[in-house]
Write a structure and sequence with these properties.
Length: 353
């Protein structure tokens, strides 16, 4: 509203407000200040080191003060604003400031995420290039599959193996519920791979054997819902996480884990339990890495075959062995799975030439 000079005959001159105009109003200073924002950021040299054990709705469980006996405590932290959109996931090594006492109501801030050595990811489907980070800095992947109830799915296991090789993880195949069905026909599908295999019955988990496999390692578990991951994790860690059941109508398992969480193994090491999934998209994976899950030798060959450039050429061992009849019917099925993955990614089918 504009103020106009009052007329001399204006009755408002006799009122208190009639003696003022806009020049009488004090101009407020800029609430943000006139000083330019500094570009010097804190170095956080005194920040504490931590390892993310779980993520829950913007809050992070972080292991700090780890000693030579692998002791330590888990505190609660939040992500600092300066990290922006950078994701913090289970397995990340981070730097912390603030209250790291772990007392009730305390909250630290994650101000830095260290470079990751490995990164397990998945996408919604093979055509989706948007990846979802699951776990960082794991050493190996324990692929859990049931011998029965639910029935094992070889092509889902193929996808897990591709994701493991792409992430730089050593895959281990774990067959549960071996007292319900003979796992050997299923294992025949992976005979051409040099995979480490461990087995477990419903009522008898060989804890000593698993401890040897997991000792001093960070192991991420993956598997279809209902295959017995939570039961296995509980036996190896002494935890009491909920155990799911298989729907008798659909034959599908029920999700019992809603987020990834790292739990200490009684024999040493850490196991990261992940939510069960019924699909595992590989849209983020380099197609050249798909081959590593299908043959025991994944090395470039010379000269290039079928016009494929040298940097894309591989030893198509499984293709040759299937064509020669060496791998039989199971080899043909594996080759079909291999072709399906490559075709879905729009890549060259080695058996089509």
């Amino acid at each position: 509203m504009s103020w106009l000079p009052p007329d001399e005959d204006d009755d408002d001159l006799d009122q208190p407000w009639g003696q003022y105009d806009e020049s009488s109003v004090r101009v407020r200073p800029n609430p943000k200040g006139n000083r330019p924002r500094t570009k010097v950021r804190p170095t956080y040299d005194a920040a504490a080191a931590g390892w993310v054990t779980n993520v829950d709705r913007g809050r992070y469980g972080v292991l700090v003060d780890v000693d030579e006996h692998h002791g330590g405590r888990v505190i609660t932290a939040t992500k600092a604003r300066e990290l922006g959109k950078k994701a913090v996931v289970t397995g990340d090594h981070v730097s912390l400031v603030g209250d790291i006492s772990g007392d009730e109501g305390s909250l630290a801030r994650i101000v830095r995420v260290a470079e990751r050595t490995t990164l397990l990811r998945r996408s919604a489907d093979d055509s989706d290039e948007v990846e979802r980070v699951i776990v960082a800095n794991a050493d190996q992947m324990l692929v859990v599959v049931a011998a029965a109830d639910p029935e094992p799915r070889t092509r889902l296991i193929d996808r897990y193996l591709v994701a493991a090789f792409d992430a730089g993880l050593d895959p281990i195949l774990c067959i549960t519920k071996t007292d319900l069905a003979d796992p050997q026909p299923f294992l025949d599908h992976f005979a051409c791979l040099d995979l480490r295999i461990v087995t477990s019955a419903v009522t008898d988990v060989p804890v000593a054997l698993f401890d040897e496999v997991l000792r001093d390692k960070v192991t991420v578990t993956v598997g279809h819902s209902g295959v017995g991951k939570s039961t296995l994790v509980n036996a190896l860690t002494g935890s009491t996480r909920a155990v799911g059941v298989v729907n008798t109508v659909t034959g599908r398992g029920r999700h019992t884990s809603s987020s990834s969480i790292a739990i200490r193994v009684t024999g040493g090491g850490w196991i990261i339990d992940t939510p069960g999934v019924r699909s595992f998209g590989l849209g983020h994976v380099e197609p050249a890495n798909v081959f590593r899950a299908f043959a025991s030798h994944a090395v470039p060959v010379a000269p290039p075959r079928d016009g494929i450039p040298l940097d894309q050429a591989h030893d198509w061992e499984i293709v040759d062995r299937v064509h020669d009849g060496e791998l039989g019917a199971t080899g043909v099925e594996r080759l079909d799975s291999f072709r399906a993955l490559l075709t879905g990614m729009g890549e060259h089918d080695p058996g089509a030439a």
